[in-house]
Amino acid sequence: MICGGKMDKKILVAYATKHGATFEIAERIGKKLEENNLKVEILPAKQVKDLTGYAAVIIGSGVYIGQWIKDAGKFLHANETVLKTLPVWIFSSGPTGEGDASELVKGWKLPRGVQESVDVILPKGVVVFHGALDEKKLSRLERWMIGKVGAALGDFRDWEKIDQWANEIGTQLKE
Ligand SMILES: Cc1cc2nc3c(=O)[nH]c(=O)nc-3n(C[C@H](O)[C@H](O)[C@H](O)COP(=O)(O)O)c2cc1C
After folding, report:
1. pLDDT tens for residues 114-159?
2. Local structure of 137: helix, strand or coil
3. pTM, rounded to two decimals
4. Is residue 90 within 8 Å of 57, Cβ to Cβ?
5. CB-facing half-sphere around the CA of 107: CA atoms within 13 A
6. What are the b/e assignments for 57-86, b being 16+ CB within 10 Å?
């Protein structure tokens, strides 16, 4: 594209991560969008001060005891007014173990705490992806909690699903 237009604007991929799994998903989504000839910026949700200049926003968080990492919820809340004017996609990185991600979380889609913002923003997509649990990265308390709920250790991220979701976004943004 030679002349200006929405393709020249950047897509923001913001994320909140504790142990890195969600960051890597954000990176992967960003890479796919770039392959779709879109300009991308990948930033921790906490670092985003201003949404000026972004044509679309993707925001993701790891899930801890049914909640998002605080920075992700704060990001949505603080930017509601702008986000409701932009195409927005939301993902969570949560369940570990074999099987369908939304079945593993029993239909859980979003933490209750962010639902109010989401009702204002009306995102184009909300998805739950499998996550990753690396025993070496967990604190003793976290290991104990994981043991309690019997969550599987290991990397269950479904890169094909993630790529597919990102490509769908890319397609929509190019329309
Ligand atoms: C203490 C603890 C609690 C967790 N609670 C949940 C949960 O309630 N639901 C869920 O789907 N995943 C849960 N997980 C799994 C994480 O969401 C998953 O490992 C995610 O990919 C971590 O992302 P991050 O590495 O970006 O922080 C939990 C993990 C830990 C360590």
Report:
1. 999 999 999 999 999 999 999 999 999 999 999 998 899 999 999 9
2. helix
3. 0.95
4. no
5. 0
6. bbbbbbbeeeebbebbbbbbeebeeebeeb
Looking from the CA of residue 18, the nearest atom of ligand 1 is 27
pLDDT number for residue 119: 97
At CA 80, angle to CA 23 and CA 168, rounded to 5?
50
Q: Cα of 92 to ligand 1 centre, how many Å? A: 10
For ligand 1, the distance from its centroid to the CA atom of residue 52, given in whole angstroms, is: 31
Spatial contact of 21 and 157, defined as CB atoms under 8 Å apart: yes
User: Which residue, chain included where needed, has tokens 């250790």?
Assistant: 153
| Ligand 1 centre distance from Cα of residue 114 (Å) | 17
Rg (CA), the chain: 16
